[in-house]
Amino acid sequence: MSKEIEIEISNIEFWITLAFLIVLAYWTFQVTVPTNIVFGDEGFHTTLARWIGTKLEYPKYIPFEGTNLRKTGYYRPPLWNLLEASFFAIFGNNELIPKILNPVITFLTGLSIFILTFKIFRNEKLSLFASILTVSLPTILTYTVFFYYANLLVFFSTLSILLFFDYVKNNSWKSLILSSLFASLAFLTNQAGLALYLLILIWFLKEVYENRRLKNSWIISIFILIIVPLGFFVRNLVVYKAPVCYSIPYLGKFWSLDLCNINEMQEKYKFKGQAIPTGTEQNVFRFGLMNYLSFVYGNLLFTFLPFIFGFSLIYLRKEKIFIPLSLFLLFLLILFPKVSSRAEDTARYTILWASTISFVAAFFYEYISQEFEKSLPYSSFIIILIVLILASYYSISKLNSLKPLKYWSISFIQACKWISQNLPENSTISTIWAHNAAFYSNRRIAGFYADIALSNDLNYTLKFMKENGIDYLFIQKFSIDPLNRGYADNYPSNFVKMIINHPNIFVKVYENGPPLENCLNGNCDGNVIYYINYTAAGF
Fold first, then answer.
1. Cβ neighbours of residue 10 under 8 Å, at least 6 residues apart?
2. Is residue 474 situated within a structural domain?
3. How far, in Å, CA of 459 to CA of 442, rounded?
4. Residue range 383-433, pLDDT digits in tens
5. Residue 239: exposed, middle, or buried by beta-carbon count in 10 A (0-12, 13-18, 19+)?
6. Shared domain check, 221 and 361
7. What is residue 273's predicted lDDT score, i.e. its pLDDT?
8. Which of 342, 375, 405 is the last residue of a domain?
9. What's the whole-model pTM score?
10. Mean pLDDT of 219-240
11. Model pLDDT, residue 252
12. Owning domain of residue 201
Protein backbone atom coordinates (compact mmCIF):
# COMPACT_ATOMS: atom_id res chain seq x y z
CA MET A 1 0.00 0.00 0.00
CA SER A 2 1.21 3.53 -0.70
CA LYS A 3 2.02 5.76 2.24
CA GLU A 4 0.33 9.07 2.78
CA ILE A 5 2.43 12.23 2.59
CA GLU A 6 3.24 13.48 6.08
CA ILE A 7 5.55 16.45 6.52
CA GLU A 8 6.14 17.43 10.12
CA ILE A 9 5.61 21.12 10.89
CA SER A 10 8.95 21.00 12.69
CA ASN A 11 10.68 19.79 9.51
CA ILE A 12 13.27 22.52 9.05
CA GLU A 13 14.09 21.51 5.47
CA PHE A 14 10.49 22.16 4.45
CA TRP A 15 10.47 25.61 6.02
CA ILE A 16 13.83 26.47 4.44
CA THR A 17 12.46 25.44 1.05
CA LEU A 18 9.23 27.37 1.56
CA ALA A 19 11.15 30.49 2.60
CA PHE A 20 13.40 30.26 -0.46
CA LEU A 21 10.39 29.84 -2.77
CA ILE A 22 8.69 32.88 -1.26
CA VAL A 23 11.82 35.01 -1.59
CA LEU A 24 12.35 33.83 -5.17
CA ALA A 25 8.73 34.71 -6.00
CA TYR A 26 9.35 38.19 -4.61
CA TRP A 27 12.48 38.55 -6.76
CA THR A 28 10.60 37.48 -9.88
CA PHE A 29 7.73 39.88 -9.11
CA GLN A 30 10.36 42.62 -9.04
CA VAL A 31 11.04 41.78 -12.70
CA THR A 32 7.56 40.96 -14.02
CA VAL A 33 5.32 43.56 -12.38
CA PRO A 34 7.01 46.86 -13.40
CA THR A 35 8.04 45.77 -16.91
CA ASN A 36 6.27 45.43 -20.26
CA ILE A 37 4.72 42.43 -22.01
CA VAL A 38 6.92 42.61 -25.08
CA PHE A 39 9.47 39.80 -25.32
CA GLY A 40 9.07 37.33 -28.17
CA ASP A 41 5.84 35.37 -28.12
CA GLU A 42 4.53 36.63 -24.78
CA GLY A 43 2.65 39.39 -26.60
CA PHE A 44 1.02 36.73 -28.78
CA HIS A 45 -0.04 34.48 -25.90
CA THR A 46 -1.33 37.35 -23.78
CA THR A 47 -3.23 38.95 -26.68
CA LEU A 48 -4.81 35.61 -27.55
CA ALA A 49 -5.82 34.98 -23.94
CA ARG A 50 -7.22 38.50 -23.67
CA TRP A 51 -9.25 38.00 -26.87
CA ILE A 52 -10.66 34.65 -25.69
CA GLY A 53 -11.43 36.05 -22.23
CA THR A 54 -13.26 39.02 -23.74
CA LYS A 55 -15.11 37.28 -26.57
CA LEU A 56 -15.61 33.94 -24.77
CA GLU A 57 -14.92 32.20 -28.07
CA TYR A 58 -12.52 29.48 -29.23
CA PRO A 59 -11.32 30.96 -32.55
CA LYS A 60 -10.76 28.91 -35.69
CA TYR A 61 -7.96 31.23 -36.83
CA ILE A 62 -5.73 33.63 -34.90
CA PRO A 63 -8.05 36.66 -34.94
CA PHE A 64 -5.56 39.50 -34.52
CA GLU A 65 -2.80 38.47 -36.94
CA GLY A 66 -2.75 37.60 -40.62
CA THR A 67 -3.96 39.04 -43.92
CA ASN A 68 -6.70 38.47 -46.49
CA LEU A 69 -4.58 35.70 -48.02
CA ARG A 70 -2.90 34.16 -44.98
CA LYS A 71 -4.42 33.05 -41.71
CA THR A 72 -2.97 30.76 -39.07
CA GLY A 73 -5.27 28.23 -37.48
CA TYR A 74 -5.66 28.10 -33.73
CA TYR A 75 -4.90 24.41 -33.52
CA ARG A 76 -2.17 24.54 -30.88
CA PRO A 77 -2.71 22.90 -27.47
CA PRO A 78 -4.83 25.57 -25.76
CA LEU A 79 -4.51 25.05 -22.02
CA TRP A 80 -2.11 27.93 -21.29
CA ASN A 81 -4.18 30.41 -23.31
CA LEU A 82 -7.43 29.17 -21.77
CA LEU A 83 -6.01 29.41 -18.24
CA GLU A 84 -4.96 33.02 -18.80
CA ALA A 85 -8.25 33.75 -20.57
CA SER A 86 -10.26 32.49 -17.60
CA PHE A 87 -8.55 35.04 -15.36
CA PHE A 88 -9.11 37.80 -17.93
CA ALA A 89 -12.79 36.82 -18.13
CA ILE A 90 -13.16 37.04 -14.34
CA PHE A 91 -10.95 40.03 -13.49
CA GLY A 92 -10.98 42.00 -16.75
CA ASN A 93 -8.08 42.91 -19.04
CA ASN A 94 -5.55 43.53 -16.31
CA GLU A 95 -1.87 43.20 -17.25
CA LEU A 96 -1.11 42.04 -13.71
CA ILE A 97 -2.71 38.67 -14.46
CA PRO A 98 0.17 37.14 -16.49
CA LYS A 99 2.72 39.10 -14.45
CA ILE A 100 1.56 37.39 -11.26
CA LEU A 101 0.44 34.05 -12.69
CA ASN A 102 3.82 32.80 -13.89
CA PRO A 103 5.77 33.38 -10.66
CA VAL A 104 2.93 31.68 -8.77
CA ILE A 105 3.20 28.64 -11.07
CA THR A 106 6.96 28.47 -10.41
CA PHE A 107 6.29 28.68 -6.66
CA LEU A 108 3.79 25.82 -6.90
CA THR A 109 6.24 23.80 -9.00
CA GLY A 110 8.94 24.12 -6.35
CA LEU A 111 6.52 23.25 -3.56
CA SER A 112 5.20 20.23 -5.47
CA ILE A 113 8.72 18.95 -6.08
CA PHE A 114 9.48 19.01 -2.36
CA ILE A 115 6.23 17.23 -1.44
CA LEU A 116 6.43 14.55 -4.14
CA THR A 117 10.14 13.87 -3.73
CA PHE A 118 9.50 13.41 -0.02
CA LYS A 119 6.59 11.09 -0.82
CA ILE A 120 8.83 8.92 -3.00
CA PHE A 121 12.01 8.78 -0.89
CA ARG A 122 11.05 10.01 2.60
CA ASN A 123 14.18 12.18 2.51
CA GLU A 124 13.82 15.83 3.50
CA LYS A 125 17.23 16.94 2.29
CA LEU A 126 16.81 15.31 -1.13
CA SER A 127 13.44 17.07 -1.39
CA LEU A 128 14.97 20.42 -0.49
CA PHE A 129 17.79 20.12 -3.02
CA ALA A 130 15.46 18.96 -5.82
CA SER A 131 13.10 21.89 -5.25
CA ILE A 132 15.71 24.64 -4.92
CA LEU A 133 17.83 23.41 -7.83
CA THR A 134 14.80 23.32 -10.13
CA VAL A 135 13.37 26.76 -9.48
CA SER A 136 16.81 28.38 -9.72
CA LEU A 137 17.62 26.90 -13.14
CA PRO A 138 18.15 29.68 -15.72
CA THR A 139 15.67 28.10 -18.13
CA ILE A 140 12.98 27.98 -15.42
CA LEU A 141 13.63 31.58 -14.38
CA THR A 142 13.52 32.68 -18.02
CA TYR A 143 10.02 31.34 -18.53
CA THR A 144 8.93 32.56 -15.13
CA VAL A 145 9.41 36.16 -16.28
CA PHE A 146 8.46 35.56 -19.96
CA PHE A 147 4.80 34.68 -20.35
CA TYR A 148 4.92 31.62 -22.60
CA TYR A 149 3.32 28.21 -22.17
CA ALA A 150 6.63 26.75 -20.93
CA ASN A 151 6.15 27.37 -17.22
CA LEU A 152 2.79 25.64 -17.09
CA LEU A 153 4.27 22.75 -19.08
CA VAL A 154 7.04 22.38 -16.48
CA PHE A 155 4.46 22.34 -13.69
CA PHE A 156 2.30 19.59 -15.19
CA SER A 157 5.22 17.51 -16.52
CA THR A 158 7.01 17.67 -13.15
CA LEU A 159 3.91 16.42 -11.36
CA SER A 160 3.48 13.66 -13.94
CA ILE A 161 7.06 12.35 -13.94
CA LEU A 162 7.47 12.42 -10.14
CA LEU A 163 4.14 10.69 -9.60
CA PHE A 164 5.18 8.10 -12.16
CA PHE A 165 8.44 7.55 -10.28
CA ASP A 166 6.36 7.08 -7.12
CA TYR A 167 4.31 4.42 -8.87
CA VAL A 168 7.44 2.60 -10.04
CA LYS A 169 9.19 2.76 -6.67
CA ASN A 170 6.28 2.40 -4.24
CA ASN A 171 3.64 0.72 -6.42
CA SER A 172 1.15 3.50 -5.71
CA TRP A 173 -1.79 3.03 -8.07
CA LYS A 174 -3.12 6.47 -7.12
CA SER A 175 0.14 8.02 -8.29
CA LEU A 176 -0.11 6.19 -11.62
CA ILE A 177 -3.59 7.56 -12.23
CA LEU A 178 -2.58 11.09 -11.24
CA SER A 179 0.57 10.83 -13.37
CA SER A 180 -1.61 10.04 -16.38
CA LEU A 181 -3.89 12.97 -15.60
CA PHE A 182 -1.02 15.44 -15.41
CA ALA A 183 0.59 13.95 -18.53
CA SER A 184 -2.61 14.66 -20.45
CA LEU A 185 -2.69 18.22 -19.07
CA ALA A 186 0.96 18.64 -20.08
CA PHE A 187 0.06 17.55 -23.61
CA LEU A 188 -2.84 20.03 -23.69
CA THR A 189 -0.27 22.70 -22.78
CA ASN A 190 2.27 21.73 -25.44
CA GLN A 191 2.85 18.75 -27.71
CA ALA A 192 6.14 18.01 -25.91
CA GLY A 193 3.89 16.31 -23.36
CA LEU A 194 3.73 13.39 -25.80
CA ALA A 195 7.05 12.28 -24.29
CA LEU A 196 5.17 11.51 -21.07
CA TYR A 197 2.54 9.60 -23.03
CA LEU A 198 5.28 7.54 -24.65
CA LEU A 199 6.95 6.76 -21.31
CA ILE A 200 3.67 5.66 -19.72
CA LEU A 201 2.71 3.59 -22.77
CA ILE A 202 6.05 1.76 -22.84
CA TRP A 203 5.78 0.96 -19.12
CA PHE A 204 2.20 -0.21 -19.63
CA LEU A 205 3.30 -2.64 -22.36
CA LYS A 206 6.19 -3.82 -20.18
CA GLU A 207 3.92 -4.62 -17.24
CA VAL A 208 1.29 -6.31 -19.37
CA TYR A 209 3.99 -8.48 -20.94
CA GLU A 210 5.56 -9.37 -17.57
CA ASN A 211 2.35 -9.93 -15.60
CA ARG A 212 0.17 -11.35 -18.38
CA ARG A 213 -2.75 -9.40 -17.00
CA LEU A 214 -4.17 -5.89 -17.01
CA LYS A 215 -4.55 -4.13 -13.66
CA ASN A 216 -7.53 -1.85 -13.04
CA SER A 217 -5.20 1.07 -12.34
CA TRP A 218 -3.81 0.77 -15.87
CA ILE A 219 -7.30 0.67 -17.37
CA ILE A 220 -8.15 3.92 -15.57
CA SER A 221 -4.83 5.52 -16.55
CA ILE A 222 -5.14 4.70 -20.24
CA PHE A 223 -8.74 5.91 -20.16
CA ILE A 224 -7.58 9.25 -18.70
CA LEU A 225 -4.83 9.62 -21.30
CA ILE A 226 -7.45 9.23 -24.02
CA ILE A 227 -10.48 11.02 -22.61
CA VAL A 228 -8.84 14.22 -21.28
CA PRO A 229 -7.47 15.45 -24.65
CA LEU A 230 -10.30 13.87 -26.68
CA GLY A 231 -12.24 17.11 -27.02
CA PHE A 232 -9.13 18.81 -28.43
CA PHE A 233 -8.70 16.07 -31.04
CA VAL A 234 -12.38 16.05 -31.99
CA ARG A 235 -12.49 19.83 -32.34
CA ASN A 236 -9.44 19.79 -34.63
CA LEU A 237 -10.96 16.97 -36.70
CA VAL A 238 -14.17 18.94 -37.16
CA VAL A 239 -12.47 22.26 -37.90
CA TYR A 240 -9.27 21.23 -39.73
CA LYS A 241 -9.94 17.59 -40.71
CA ALA A 242 -6.84 16.62 -38.69
CA PRO A 243 -6.53 15.61 -35.01
CA VAL A 244 -3.32 17.65 -34.68
CA CYS A 245 -1.78 20.11 -37.12
CA TYR A 246 1.88 19.18 -36.87
CA SER A 247 4.09 16.29 -37.88
CA ILE A 248 5.67 14.02 -35.27
CA PRO A 249 9.51 14.07 -35.12
CA TYR A 250 11.09 11.16 -37.05
CA LEU A 251 7.63 9.90 -38.06
CA GLY A 252 6.31 12.75 -40.19
CA LYS A 253 2.61 13.35 -40.73
CA PHE A 254 -0.13 10.77 -41.08
CA TRP A 255 -2.89 13.03 -42.42
CA SER A 256 -3.34 16.14 -44.53
CA LEU A 257 -2.60 19.47 -42.85
CA ASP A 258 -3.94 21.54 -45.76
CA LEU A 259 -6.89 22.97 -43.82
CA CYS A 260 -4.92 23.94 -40.72
CA ASN A 261 -3.91 27.27 -42.23
CA ILE A 262 -5.10 29.47 -45.07
CA ASN A 263 -2.23 30.49 -47.33
CA GLU A 264 -3.09 31.82 -50.76
CA MET A 265 0.01 34.02 -50.98
CA GLN A 266 2.17 33.61 -54.05
CA GLU A 267 5.57 34.51 -52.59
CA LYS A 268 8.69 35.03 -54.67
CA TYR A 269 11.21 35.99 -51.99
CA LYS A 270 12.58 34.45 -48.80
CA PHE A 271 14.43 35.87 -45.82
CA LYS A 272 17.83 34.42 -44.95
CA GLY A 273 16.55 33.69 -41.46
CA GLN A 274 14.57 35.14 -38.59
CA ALA A 275 17.31 37.18 -36.95
CA ILE A 276 20.97 37.96 -37.56
CA PRO A 277 22.62 34.78 -36.18
CA THR A 278 24.43 35.84 -33.03
CA GLY A 279 24.24 34.41 -29.50
CA THR A 280 21.22 32.20 -28.89
CA GLU A 281 19.88 32.97 -32.39
CA GLN A 282 22.48 30.48 -33.65
CA ASN A 283 22.01 26.74 -33.76
CA VAL A 284 23.13 24.91 -30.64
CA PHE A 285 26.36 23.55 -32.08
CA ARG A 286 27.47 26.86 -33.58
CA PHE A 287 26.58 28.57 -30.31
CA GLY A 288 28.65 25.90 -28.54
CA LEU A 289 27.32 22.93 -26.61
CA MET A 290 28.95 24.02 -23.34
CA ASN A 291 27.59 27.55 -23.83
CA TYR A 292 24.15 26.08 -24.44
CA LEU A 293 24.26 23.92 -21.30
CA SER A 294 25.31 26.97 -19.28
CA PHE A 295 22.52 29.03 -20.89
CA VAL A 296 19.91 26.44 -19.89
CA TYR A 297 21.25 24.90 -16.66
CA GLY A 298 23.54 27.62 -15.33
CA ASN A 299 26.94 27.01 -13.79
CA LEU A 300 27.84 23.50 -14.92
CA LEU A 301 29.69 22.76 -11.67
CA PHE A 302 26.51 23.62 -9.76
CA THR A 303 23.94 21.72 -11.81
CA PHE A 304 25.06 19.65 -14.76
CA LEU A 305 28.10 17.95 -13.21
CA PRO A 306 26.04 17.03 -10.11
CA PHE A 307 23.42 15.65 -12.53
CA ILE A 308 26.02 13.25 -13.95
CA PHE A 309 27.11 12.18 -10.46
CA GLY A 310 23.49 11.93 -9.32
CA PHE A 311 22.59 9.71 -12.26
CA SER A 312 25.51 7.43 -11.35
CA LEU A 313 24.33 7.26 -7.72
CA ILE A 314 20.82 6.27 -8.78
CA TYR A 315 22.33 3.46 -10.84
CA LEU A 316 24.70 2.29 -8.09
CA ARG A 317 21.91 2.29 -5.52
CA LYS A 318 19.83 0.16 -7.88
CA GLU A 319 16.91 2.53 -7.49
CA LYS A 320 13.74 1.26 -9.14
CA ILE A 321 13.31 4.58 -10.93
CA PHE A 322 16.57 4.14 -12.86
CA ILE A 323 15.04 2.45 -15.91
CA PRO A 324 12.09 4.86 -16.44
CA LEU A 325 14.41 7.77 -15.68
CA SER A 326 16.92 6.57 -18.29
CA LEU A 327 14.14 6.04 -20.80
CA PHE A 328 12.78 9.54 -20.23
CA LEU A 329 16.25 11.08 -20.64
CA LEU A 330 16.76 9.00 -23.79
CA PHE A 331 13.72 10.74 -25.30
CA LEU A 332 15.53 14.04 -24.72
CA LEU A 333 18.62 12.82 -26.58
CA ILE A 334 16.47 11.59 -29.47
CA LEU A 335 14.54 14.86 -29.73
CA PHE A 336 17.54 17.15 -29.34
CA PRO A 337 18.90 17.01 -32.94
CA LYS A 338 15.44 17.84 -34.28
CA VAL A 339 15.11 21.06 -32.27
CA SER A 340 18.68 22.37 -32.21
CA SER A 341 18.47 24.87 -35.09
CA ARG A 342 18.10 27.88 -32.73
CA ALA A 343 19.50 27.67 -29.21
CA GLU A 344 16.79 29.85 -27.68
CA ASP A 345 14.06 27.64 -29.14
CA THR A 346 15.89 24.45 -28.15
CA ALA A 347 15.79 25.51 -24.50
CA ARG A 348 12.03 26.01 -24.71
CA TYR A 349 11.28 22.83 -26.67
CA THR A 350 13.22 20.70 -24.16
CA ILE A 351 12.13 22.45 -20.96
CA LEU A 352 9.94 19.42 -20.22
CA TRP A 353 13.10 17.69 -18.91
CA ALA A 354 14.47 20.59 -16.84
CA SER A 355 13.03 19.53 -13.49
CA THR A 356 14.18 15.94 -14.08
CA ILE A 357 17.77 17.14 -14.59
CA SER A 358 17.74 19.04 -11.30
CA PHE A 359 15.91 16.19 -9.53
CA VAL A 360 18.76 13.84 -10.47
CA ALA A 361 21.39 16.44 -9.50
CA ALA A 362 19.80 16.59 -6.04
CA PHE A 363 20.98 13.03 -5.36
CA PHE A 364 24.59 14.23 -5.50
CA TYR A 365 24.00 16.99 -2.96
CA GLU A 366 22.03 14.65 -0.71
CA TYR A 367 24.91 12.15 -0.83
CA ILE A 368 27.50 14.80 0.05
CA SER A 369 25.39 16.12 2.94
CA GLN A 370 24.91 12.56 4.19
CA GLU A 371 28.67 11.95 4.17
CA PHE A 372 29.26 15.20 6.08
CA GLU A 373 26.65 14.16 8.62
CA LYS A 374 28.56 10.95 9.37
CA SER A 375 31.60 12.94 10.45
CA LEU A 376 29.89 15.78 12.28
CA PRO A 377 26.24 15.99 13.38
CA TYR A 378 24.23 18.76 11.69
CA SER A 379 27.13 19.50 9.34
CA SER A 380 24.82 18.64 6.43
CA PHE A 381 23.32 22.09 6.91
CA ILE A 382 26.62 23.51 5.71
CA ILE A 383 25.87 21.93 2.32
CA ILE A 384 22.32 23.26 2.45
CA LEU A 385 23.64 26.75 3.23
CA ILE A 386 26.12 26.59 0.35
CA VAL A 387 23.39 25.48 -2.07
CA LEU A 388 21.07 28.24 -0.84
CA ILE A 389 23.76 30.89 -1.27
CA LEU A 390 24.72 29.70 -4.75
CA ALA A 391 21.09 29.27 -5.86
CA SER A 392 20.31 32.78 -4.63
CA TYR A 393 23.35 34.26 -6.33
CA TYR A 394 22.68 32.56 -9.67
CA SER A 395 18.96 33.40 -9.49
CA ILE A 396 19.59 37.08 -8.84
CA SER A 397 22.22 37.20 -11.60
CA LYS A 398 19.87 35.57 -14.11
CA LEU A 399 16.92 37.78 -13.18
CA ASN A 400 19.10 40.88 -13.46
CA SER A 401 20.15 39.80 -16.95
CA LEU A 402 16.52 39.17 -17.96
CA LYS A 403 15.10 42.44 -16.66
CA PRO A 404 16.47 44.66 -19.49
CA LEU A 405 14.88 42.28 -22.03
CA LYS A 406 11.50 42.98 -20.44
CA TYR A 407 11.75 46.69 -21.17
CA TRP A 408 10.81 47.93 -24.60
CA SER A 409 11.00 51.17 -26.48
CA ILE A 410 8.59 53.62 -24.86
CA SER A 411 8.20 55.26 -28.25
CA PHE A 412 6.93 51.93 -29.66
CA ILE A 413 4.25 51.66 -26.99
CA GLN A 414 3.30 55.32 -27.55
CA ALA A 415 2.92 54.65 -31.27
CA CYS A 416 0.74 51.61 -30.55
CA LYS A 417 -1.49 53.67 -28.29
CA TRP A 418 -1.82 56.25 -31.06
CA ILE A 419 -2.87 53.44 -33.41
CA SER A 420 -5.50 52.19 -30.96
CA GLN A 421 -6.96 55.69 -30.63
CA ASN A 422 -6.78 56.91 -34.23
CA LEU A 423 -6.79 54.12 -36.82
CA PRO A 424 -9.95 52.28 -37.91
CA GLU A 425 -10.67 49.09 -35.97
CA ASN A 426 -10.84 47.07 -39.20
CA SER A 427 -7.45 48.26 -40.47
CA THR A 428 -4.55 45.87 -41.10
CA ILE A 429 -1.04 47.01 -40.21
CA SER A 430 2.23 45.49 -41.40
CA THR A 431 5.16 45.51 -39.00
CA ILE A 432 8.06 43.31 -37.93
CA TRP A 433 7.10 43.28 -34.26
CA ALA A 434 3.66 41.81 -34.87
CA HIS A 435 3.02 40.15 -31.49
CA ASN A 436 4.03 43.26 -29.54
CA ALA A 437 2.01 45.57 -31.79
CA ALA A 438 -1.07 43.35 -31.57
CA PHE A 439 -0.99 43.47 -27.78
CA TYR A 440 -0.57 47.23 -27.44
CA SER A 441 -2.54 48.49 -30.47
CA ASN A 442 -5.52 46.10 -30.41
CA ARG A 443 -5.57 46.00 -34.22
CA ARG A 444 -5.08 43.22 -36.78
CA ILE A 445 -1.37 42.94 -37.50
CA ALA A 446 0.14 41.50 -40.64
CA GLY A 447 3.71 40.32 -40.61
CA PHE A 448 6.44 42.02 -42.57
CA TYR A 449 6.80 39.56 -45.43
CA ALA A 450 9.84 38.96 -47.61
CA ASP A 451 7.93 40.04 -50.73
CA ILE A 452 7.43 43.45 -49.11
CA ALA A 453 10.95 43.81 -47.77
CA LEU A 454 13.16 42.35 -50.48
CA SER A 455 11.65 42.96 -53.92
CA ASN A 456 12.91 46.58 -54.29
CA ASP A 457 10.16 46.89 -56.90
CA LEU A 458 7.57 49.50 -55.97
CA ASN A 459 4.78 48.14 -58.16
CA TYR A 460 5.31 44.54 -57.06
CA THR A 461 5.46 45.57 -53.39
CA LEU A 462 2.25 47.59 -53.67
CA LYS A 463 0.49 44.80 -55.56
CA PHE A 464 1.47 42.30 -52.87
CA MET A 465 0.30 44.54 -50.03
CA LYS A 466 -2.96 45.41 -51.83
CA GLU A 467 -3.80 41.72 -52.39
CA ASN A 468 -3.20 41.04 -48.71
CA GLY A 469 -5.37 43.93 -47.56
CA ILE A 470 -2.58 45.83 -45.80
CA ASP A 471 -3.61 49.42 -45.02
CA TYR A 472 -0.68 50.76 -43.02
CA LEU A 473 3.06 50.26 -42.53
CA PHE A 474 4.41 50.56 -38.99
CA ILE A 475 8.20 51.03 -39.13
CA GLN A 476 10.51 50.88 -36.10
CA LYS A 477 13.65 52.95 -36.64
CA PHE A 478 15.65 50.78 -34.23
CA SER A 479 15.12 47.78 -36.55
CA ILE A 480 16.55 49.27 -39.74
CA ASP A 481 19.42 47.25 -41.23
CA PRO A 482 21.80 49.57 -43.14
CA LEU A 483 23.57 46.51 -44.63
CA ASN A 484 20.41 45.05 -46.23
CA ARG A 485 21.25 41.53 -45.05
CA GLY A 486 17.75 40.18 -45.59
CA TYR A 487 16.70 38.91 -42.15
CA ALA A 488 13.07 38.90 -41.06
CA ASP A 489 13.66 40.92 -37.88
CA ASN A 490 14.99 43.98 -39.74
CA TYR A 491 13.80 46.52 -42.29
CA PRO A 492 16.32 46.73 -45.16
CA SER A 493 17.43 50.34 -45.57
CA ASN A 494 16.73 50.02 -49.31
CA PHE A 495 13.07 49.36 -48.51
CA VAL A 496 12.95 52.35 -46.16
CA LYS A 497 14.49 54.58 -48.84
CA MET A 498 11.80 53.44 -51.28
CA ILE A 499 9.13 54.58 -48.83
CA ILE A 500 10.81 57.93 -48.24
CA ASN A 501 11.11 58.54 -52.00
CA HIS A 502 7.36 58.11 -52.63
CA PRO A 503 5.59 60.36 -50.09
CA ASN A 504 2.45 60.60 -52.23
CA ILE A 505 1.95 56.81 -51.95
CA PHE A 506 3.29 56.22 -48.44
CA VAL A 507 1.58 59.01 -46.52
CA LYS A 508 3.10 59.67 -43.12
CA VAL A 509 0.36 59.88 -40.49
CA TYR A 510 2.47 59.57 -37.34
CA GLU A 511 6.11 59.80 -36.31
CA ASN A 512 8.04 59.94 -33.08
CA GLY A 513 11.77 60.06 -32.45
CA PRO A 514 14.35 61.54 -34.86
CA PRO A 515 13.38 62.03 -38.53
CA LEU A 516 13.43 58.74 -40.41
CA GLU A 517 15.82 60.19 -42.99
CA ASN A 518 18.44 60.52 -40.25
CA CYS A 519 18.06 56.91 -39.12
CA LEU A 520 19.02 54.91 -42.20
CA ASN A 521 22.29 53.89 -40.55
CA GLY A 522 20.46 52.50 -37.53
CA ASN A 523 20.91 53.31 -33.83
CA CYS A 524 17.72 55.38 -33.64
CA ASP A 525 14.70 55.06 -31.43
CA GLY A 526 11.30 56.00 -32.76
CA ASN A 527 8.59 54.85 -35.14
CA VAL A 528 6.80 55.93 -38.30
CA ILE A 529 3.31 54.97 -39.44
CA TYR A 530 2.38 55.28 -43.11
CA TYR A 531 -1.02 55.09 -44.73
CA ILE A 532 -0.70 53.31 -48.09
CA ASN A 533 -2.47 55.37 -50.77
CA TYR A 534 -3.07 52.73 -53.41
CA THR A 535 -5.16 55.15 -55.50
CA ALA A 536 -2.19 57.49 -55.94
CA ALA A 537 -0.20 54.53 -57.28
CA GLY A 538 -2.92 53.58 -59.75
CA PHE A 539 -4.21 50.52 -57.87
1. none
2. yes
3. 30
4. 999 999 999 999 999 999 999 989 889 999 999 999 999 999 999 999 999
5. middle
6. yes
7. 86
8. 405
9. 0.93
10. 97
11. 66
12. 12-37+95-228+287-405
Contact 183, 163 (CB under 8 A): no
d(C-alpha 392, C-alpha 104), whole Å: 18
Which of 19, 118, 77 minimizes the C-alpha distance to 229? 77
Name which of 367, 330, 348 is nearest 284 in CA terms: 348
Biggest alpha carbon–alpha carbon distance for the chain? 88
For residue 135, pLDDT over 60 is answered with yes
Pairing relationship of beta strands 428-430 and 472-476 according to DSSP bridges: parallel
Count Cβ atoms within 10 A of the Cβ of residue 469 and give its class: 0-12 exposed, 13-18 middle, 19 or more buried.
Answer: middle
Indicate whether 2 pLDDT > 70: no
Calculate the alpha carbon distances from 324 to 196, 299, 321, 357, 374 in Å: 11, 27, 6, 14, 31
Question: Same domain, yes or no, for 136 and 211?
Answer: yes
Q: For 86, list phi and psi in degrees, rounded to 5.
A: -65, -40
Asked whether residue 1 is assigned to any structural domain, the reply reads no
The 10 Å CB-count burial string (b at 16+, else e) for 209-225 is eeeeeeeebbeebeebb
Bridge-partner residues for 532, per DSSP?
506
Rg for the chain, CA atoms, rounded: 26
For 164-196, the pLDDT digits (tens) are 999 999 999 999 999 999 999 999 999 999 999
The 10 Å CB-count burial string (b at 16+, else e) for 377-410 is eeebbebbeebbebbbebbeebbeebeeebebbe
Last residue of a domain, one of 405, 426, 444: 405
pLDDT of residue 6: 58
The whole-number pLDDT of residue 332 equals: 96
Q: Any bridge partners for residue 531, and if so which?
A: 472, 507
pLDDT in tens, 50-101: 999 999 999 999 999 999 999 999 999 999 999 999 999 999 999 999 999 9
> Which of 109-118, 138-147, 188-197, 335-344 is the least confident region?
335-344
